Amino acid sequence: MKQRTFLAARVDQWSREHPRLLDLTLAGLMWLVFGPLSALAGPLAFLIATAAILPLAVRRRFPTAVLAWLATVFAVQLMLVPVPLPANIAQAIVVYTVAAHVASLPIRLLALGAALTGSVLAGFRWSTPPEYMANVLTNAVFLGILSVLVWVIGDLVRGRQANVSALREASARLEESRLQRERFVAQQQRVVAAREIHDIVAHSLTVMIVQADGAEYAAEHARPWDRADAGKVFATIGRTARSALTEVRGVIEVLRDTDADTETDADTGGPEEPHGAGLGIAELRRLVDSVRAAGLAVDVDAEPAVFDDVPAAIRFAVLRVVRESLTNVLKHAGPHATAHVVAARKQGWIMVRVEDDGVGVRRADAIADHVSEPGYGLDGMRERLRVLGGVLEAGPRRGGGFVIDAATPVTVPSPSARPAGLATPSGGTGRSGE
């Protein structure tokens, strides 16, 4: 049901929406009323009244010009007409208009000065004996006070309009800021989703490619062909593909769930990961088993309580780092490489090391990969840990191979906190994952 408004409110709204029509209507009505009344003083008075009233139709479009015109008309009136006219109200309206709608302070003060000067001159012109000076003083003071009041009211209206405009601009800026924040959150969610899908697909496809290549080689060269081995290969491929599909669907469901809390978390800088409560040592070992099934020999040295009382987002990030690191070993370390995973807690930090004894990757190739795919691989792992307050360092290992060291706080630390004992491997950043 539409709320009813007062007549005055509706008139005010109409006048704000149609200011020019309002001025034209006001000028016409004033001329119909005060024109004939001023004509009682003679034809010349009627002409002066008409010249004073009709310009009010454009008073808001040309306030300064109308002020100058009415000052001239008033001067002519003082010289030719010895009495005040009802049309003199037009001068008061113009003083109000200039005070309310002109931004220039000198012009507004000029209007006030002209009104006060006219009040004094009118006091001398329209006063009569026998107490002439007393009448002059009374008329000048009365007209001067009236002029000041009209000017002050107009100036207050102008200040109110300026405040309303400032509030509207502030509201528009706040709305734009809110929209920008929503766009930023949406963009951040897309980046997080792209990173998660990249990690899932890269790891799963690497495992499947290794298995498929091994099966192809065995089918062409091995004698006799072992059906049981072939079954294991295809079972691993199918299991890896189904797991990847499930994880990708989980990420998409989080993006589609508009009722879920998708706002950026103040501590982690990203949306909470789905199904994080069950991540732990068992998930780490399943991850390692899937890599072993792809043909990579992996040793795991993880404390049983390394993930106890650790937030789900941190556990998720640590497991993603391990998975991405082992995926890189599969792709870059060579066919006979072995990997070693260490996970431990030290002084409130979860320390993870993934190293291999493979052939590594040439620095030029690593730089090219790093430039061509920004935000993925090592950069993606660093970003994942950075929003949690962690760090990651990677580079060639002494004696051959590659090593990745990662440290993540059990609880999000202050920005100045850094783990003790995390040394940068010699050689700097080397391999960029895909």
TrEMBL record:
GO MF: kinase activity
Keyword check for Cell wall biogenesis/degradation: no
Keywords assigned: ATP-binding, Kinase, Membrane, Nucleotide-binding, Phosphoprotein, Transferase, Transmembrane, Transmembrane helix, Two-component regulatory system
KW Membrane (keyword) present: yes
Ranges for domain DUF7134: 12-161
Bilayer-crossing regions: 29-54, 66-85, 105-124, 136-154
Reactions catalysed according to its record: ATP + protein L-histidine = ADP + protein N-phospho-L-histidine
Region ranges (Disordered): 259-278, 413-434
Domain Histidine kinase/HSP90-like ATPase: 318-406
E.C. number(s) listed in UniProt: 2.7.13.3
Domain Signal transduction histidine kinase subgroup 3 dimerisation and phosphoacceptor: 194-259
Name of protein: histidine kinase
Organism: Streptosporangium vulgare
